[in-house]
Design goal:
The structure holds 2 protein chains of 2 kinds.
Chain A lengths: L8 H12 L9 E10 L2 E10 L2 E5 L7 E6 H8 L5 H7 L2 E5 L1 H8 L16
Helix pairs in contact in A: 1-2
Chain B lengths: L5 E5 L2 E5 L5 E2 L7 E4 L2 E4 L1 E6 L4 E10 L2 E8 L10 E9 L3 E9 L5 E10 L5 H6 L6 E7 L2 E8 L2 E9 L4 E3 L2 E8 L4 E13 L5 E3 L8 H11 L2 E4 L2 H16 L1 E2 L9 E2 L11 H11 L4 H13 L24 H4 L14 H16 L2 H6 L1 H13 L45 E2 H20 L4 H21 L1 E2 L4 E2 L2 E2 L5 E2 L5 H8 L4 H11 L32 H13 L3 H17 L13 H4 L13 H15 L2 E3 L2 E3 L10 E9 L2 E8 L7
Antiparallel strand pairs in B: 1-2, 2-4, 3-6, 4-5, 6-11, 7-8, 8-9, 9-10, 10-17, 11-16, 12-13, 13-14, 14-17, 15-16, 17-18, 19-29, 20-21, 22-25, 23-24, 25-26, 27-28, 29-30
The chains are: A alpha+beta, B alpha+beta.
Chain lengths: 123, 677
């Protein structure tokens, strides 16, 4: 796992993912996902390999089963639960191509919106 | 809206027009070309020399194809036209229309043919609620193609209208100046494509692309399903109609192209609904098990993974409804997806187990182990809102979320005998039954497939404990049935309702109480002669045409019949099956969502309850499940048990080539049960 250049939300999200090494939500998922993030004039690449839930992360710009493209700022929002990936696609601020099942499973790894509080005991 | 509408669809793309094939929608009118919950065309009007046309006939060739046979003029007395016009329309990638003008005269004729086109790009929710648009409209003409567009920030949708013959294109439509020879014809093809703009890419087709094999696909679908032989023409017709309607209700998601699951209803509910897709898949299991497989995969893929109050999402929760329109995109509605439904999650485990019992597909059970465990975990960790060991519901999205998250989701469906309504949270009884069934079936899967006997033991203990408490807390002692719910104080919400039948189906009912429950279901207060009413006559809120407080729901009855069979009440199940199938005959084989709860002897025919959607998936599935209950089909190990019990009036019944882990098997039955008049 390459070190991220800055301590930003996106990098933190991927670092956490790489460190965990396994995501049960992806247990029946295998494939590769390339995330292309536009950050001003440069493009940042994240390459995620999933093998039945085992996850590896790199910065490779390689062929992948699925590609997600968006702005870095928007991805930071998803990585912190402030932006929902599904509505971002519908609004046309995020593009997903290829194996959309993989993208669908992957977006479930994003955290909960910061304001949602679950009151387990209502009374 | 005019009285007679024609609708054709493919997936979630559909066209609703008048009998002439024209679309002339007002903002709240529900005609148009719709795709992914957006109206892409709100005007599509054909004129010849400025005149509208008059329909001689309209043929629904297939659920995705219609032919309109028209003549010029709107004359009412008789028509002496020298021209006739054929519009043949097929839904695919928007829609494709072949327009043919026939000249019956001995002389050539010069005509100006005009197609007016416009789009308001309304979200389905806006059509329902008459809301104002927040974005901007645009149009352009691009090499003979009329492009109608709408944008709001980066949200962009466009409709592309083009023709095979050259046309003069302006902002409001296409004009053809043509000369049709004597006894000759003129033809053009018209294409209307729905597109959306993806980030960093150009316009993409919104609808799935054309499927030239749709007709063949339908034939194959029918051939693959079991074949019916029976004395009753009506039953044969109902069965065939159910299969065709089920084919029309198939819906594919972008994440699983080439596979389909049942959507909830045509056309407004052509989307994934957790509850409806699961119930319909259960009904159709003995006939088309692949629907269950796709439902389990598609819902699993979107299972809740975080706590999100806006979407009423929790980890492990199965979604309620998915939508793709503008209001969902801008989070003015929570359907991306929305999770406010409490029964779909336990029912997910029920479907997975039932699917395995029929198909022997342990691979899917292994693949979905995480999802099934998460669903089972949700029951205790997230759905027990009051910490009393019962599932209850109360929405967290108080602005746009659903108040009632059980299948009887209208405001007044859950009440005490005197008609007063309980507060929230509400613990309705059938939810506890589903939870019991999910735990029991989950235990079987844990032992058989996941090889986790400790988890299985735990689930079985929890199920047994739930059953014991439930039979104590929900049982209305003086009447001998189960209360419809417990209120926030743990008090019984004591109206008598059809939910008791679902309890039999779930297996949560103590054997000693089953006879009394069955007696109520077939008793005068609940049973109308056609079927079991949603709420019993005599309750404070009973109304024979009240949505969930007195009407008869065919879907509800099919599960009640299954429940009765589960407890050995064969004759009672047969009576319900016979009543609902008799009703189907009055609806030409297509059962509505609900019909009036009037006593059968009073109206002689079932009084339809007005609903927007037809066919409705779980009504379409009802005759299928009733066939199963009448024949007493029950998988046991590698075998299929057949134990028929059907009404005498049905006569001889054969269901041939029932698919399952046994390969294909035939089942036979003969009507022997006398139905009391």
């Amino acid at each position: 796992m390459p070190k991220a250049t800055t301590g930003d939300a996106t990098a933190t999200f991927f670092e956490k993912l790489a460190k965990a090494g396994h995501e049960p939500i992806l247990a029946r998922t295998s494939g590769t996902l390339r995330v292309e993030l536009k950050n001003g004039r440069r493009t940042e690449y994240w390459f995620v390999t999933v093998d039945k839930g085992d996850v590896a992360v790199s910065h490779a710009n390689d062929e992948a089963d699925a590609v997600v493209r968006t702005d870095k700022a928007l991805f930071d929002g998803m990585a912190t639960g402030r932006v929902n990936a599904t509505t971002a696609i519908l609004r046309g601020v995020l593009d997903a191509e290829g194996d959309l099942g993989l993208v669908m499973s992957f977006q479930r790894l994003f955290p909960a919106p910061p304001k949602s509080v679950y009151a387990r005991k209502i009374r | 809206m005019s009285g007679e509408l024609v609708q054709i669809l493919e997936g979630n793309t559909f066209v609703v027009s008048d009998r002439n094939g024209d679309i002339d929608a007002s903002p709240v009118d529900a005609t148009g070309l719709f795709s992914f919950d957006t109206r892409f065309l709100s005007k599509w009007v054909l004129t010849i020399d400025g005149q509208r046309l008059n329909a001689l006939s309209t043929d629904d060739l297939q659920y995705f194809e219609t032919r309109f046979f028209l003549v010029p003029g709107m004359g009412t007395v008789y028509i002496d036209a020298k021209l006739s016009v054929i519009r043949q329309r097929i839904v695919a990638d928007g829609f494709h229309e072949d327009l043919t003008i026939l000249n019956h005269d001995e002389k050539p004729v010069s005509l100006e043919i005009r197609l007016e086109a416009a789009s308001d790009f309304a979200d389905l929710f806006e059509v329902k609620d008459a809301l104002q648009k927040k974005g901007q409209y645009h149009h352009r003409i691009d090499r003979g193609t009329l492009v109608l567009g709408y944008t709001r920030e980066s949200f962009a949708r466009e409709t592309l209208v083009s023709s095979s013959e050259p046309a003069k294109v302006d902002a409001a439509g296409l004009t053809f100046k043509v000369k049709v020879p004597a006894h000759g014809q003129w033809k053009t093809a018209l294409d209307v494509k729905a597109t959306y703009a993806a980030w960093g890419r150009g316009p993409m087709a919104a609808a799935s692309s054309a499927r030239p094999d749709m007709a063949r696909g339908l034939d194959k679908w029918i051939q693959r399903a079991p074949h019916i032989e029976c004395d009753s023409d009506s039953l044969r017709h109902t069965y065939h109609r159910s299969l065709v309607d089920l084919a029309a209700l198939r819906f594919s998601t972008r994440t699983m192209p080439g596979r389909s699951l049942p959507a909830a209803g045509l056309p407004w509910f052509m989307t994934m609904f957790g509850r409806d897709s699961i119930f319909t898949s259960l009904q159709a299991l003995p006939f088309t098990p692949e629907l269950a497989q796709t439902t389990l995969l598609a819902l699993g893929e979107r299972q809740g993974s975080r706590v999100d109050d806006f979407r009423d999402e929790d980890p492990g929760r199965i979604l309620h409804e998915m939508r793709y329109g503008e209001m969902t995109a801008f989070e003015e509605r929570p359907h991306s997806p929305y999770y406010g439904c409490v029964d779909a999650t336990p029912l997910y485990v029920v479907l997975l187990d039932e699917y395995e019992r029929w198909t022997g597909d342990t691979k899917l059970v292994r693949d979905l182990e995480y999802e099934a465990r998460a669903a089972l975990n949700w029951i205790d960790q997230y759905a027990d809102l009051q910490g009393n060991g019962y599932i209850s519901y109360r929405r967290r999205n108080e602005k746009t979320g659903l108040e009632n998250q059980c299948w009887k989701d209208s405001w007044d469906s859950i009440s005490y005998r005197d008609g007063t309504l309980p507060g929230f949270p509400r613990a309705t009884c059938e939810l506890q039954g589903y939870a019991y069934d999910a735990k029991t079936r989950g235990a079987r899967l844990a032992r058989l497939v996941w090889k986790d006997p400790a988890f299985a033991d735990r689930l079985e203990q929890e199920a047994a404990d739930l059953k014991r408490r439930f039979n104590r807390d929900f049982w209305v002692e003086d009447e001998g049935y189960f209360a419809i719910a417990l209120d926030v104080d743990g008090r019984q919400v004591d109206a008598l309702a059809s939910n008791n039948g679902h309890l039999l189906w779930s297996g949560i009912v103590d054997k000693s109480k089953a006879k009394s429950v069955a007696g109520h279901l077939l008793g005068k207060r609940l049973f109308s002669g056609w079927g079991v009413r949603t709420m019993a006559e005599g309750e404070g809120r009973y109304n024979p045409i009240g949505y969930h407080v007195g009407t008869v729901w065919p879907y509800d009855n099919s599960f009640i019949a299954w429940g009765l069979r589960r407890y050995g009440f064969k004759e009672e199940a047969a009576r319900i099956a016979a009543g609902i199938l008799d009703a189907a005959e009055f609806f030409d084989g297509r059962l509505p969502e609900a019909f009036g709860g009037y006593p059968r002897e009073m109206t002689k025919y079932p009084v339809q309850y007005p609903t927007a959607c037809s066919p409705q998936a779980w009504s379409t599935g009802a005759p299928l499940l009733l066939l199963r209950t009448m024949l007493g089909l029950e998988p046991q190990g590698e075998h299929l048990i057949v134990d028929p019990a059907l009404a005498r009036g049905i006569g001889h019944l054969e269901l041939l080539d029932i698919p399952g882990r046994w390969g294909r098997i035939d089942a036979f039955g003969r009507g022997r049960i006398e139905i009391p008049k």
